[in-house]
């Protein structure tokens, strides 16, 4: 609402002298008393006093809460709360399937950074609208919990497909990378660094197109050339400048893109060790080993994205994503077709219906969905931290005001669009670095294709001394 009143007046602004007389209100001195006392007027018995509340401000706008959603399945669970598949049981979108991310305020408010990350995630989800970024539909809160209602992405995590296939062909990787690049470009244009790019945070919609999720580690309001120093992300995909805490900017996302590309084409991130220290040491000092079966274009792009010296890294300049999009690896890509979602996805999720949960872990989906009661309610002053959390997507408001209309689906799968889950189990875990750490044994356990060292070529990379003790 604040934006409505941000009207800037400038001295000397021109006034149209040809305005209609209907727009002019005459001010006659004999009809207005300059001695009117405001306090006297407020004390008059003729005034009606109304207490402002959610019930009488913006009356007519849809009020949404937990009671408007039926719990269907559990999709994930973590230290801060749960993610449910839910069905809307009221309103114009009654019957629609969503993902409901439920966060306990008491768990979040214990740590100032966790509180900031949660608020940033909600703000970014409201501000960012893009074909390859998850849509926020509603946000609301109760005394003890925060609720984010997002589109249900029924295709599941890209990690699942990579785990199943072992490695991707270059054409397959090119498809996913092109959509991810456009999503990251849009975030960067909005002054946002993503900082947690990995297969688990990339979900697929019903048609198989990419959607970035989990914006809890994003950094807002980053201008060109500015840096931040927060140590966050998933170790195997972290850029060296995050690990050394030397200050980082948007280029960290392009390092992560290079690590993701390597992961897609080889079955493993480029630098992994038996423990956290060894993994970090390899990221900072190790050689980049590229399989001989990769094409020269793929090798060249990976090398240029995984440059430890930020200024040498592809995408680090003012052109940002354009540098990467112009690389020869994407020579067959029509970027207008990518943003228009005209490219055929390499994997089509096998789904029986729009509420299909087969792409998610049965460990959760087979559990009875229960939104656990809150053990304690925050004080009024503590709750003020989450003031302004409530949100209704413009598309929902437009639908409420629009006349009933018939939409003709363009394909048999049209009904599955925009119904995907927008957060994984990992998106609910603690925001500490250790919570996102996956060791080499994790990859060996989940990936079935490991390229031997006798089939690799080594690329020497410059060392960077860490600025802190591991």
TrEMBL record:
InterPro entries: AGC-kinase_C, Kinase-like_dom_sf, Pkinase_C, Prot_kinase_dom, Protein_kinase_ATP_BS, Ribosomal_S6_kinase, Ser/Thr_kinase_AS. Residues 331-401 form the AGC-kinase C-terminal domain. The keyword Zinc does not apply. The active site is at residue 196. One of its GO terms (molecular function) is ATP binding. GO terms for biological process: signal transduction. It holds the Pfam family Pkinase. SMART domains: S_TK_X, S_TKc. It catalyses: L-seryl-[protein] + ATP = O-phospho-L-seryl-[protein] + ADP + H(+); L-threonyl-[protein] + ATP = O-phospho-L-threonyl-[protein] + ADP + H(+). Its EC number is 2.7.11.1. The keyword Phosphoprotein applies. Residues 69-330 form the Protein kinase domain. Keywords: ATP-binding, Kinase, Nucleotide-binding, Phosphoprotein, Serine/threonine-protein kinase, Transferase. CDD domains: STKc_p70S6K (cd05584). Belongs to the protein kinase superfamily. AGC Ser/Thr protein kinase family. S6 kinase subfamily. This is Ribosomal protein S6 kinase. It comes from Tetragonisca angustula.
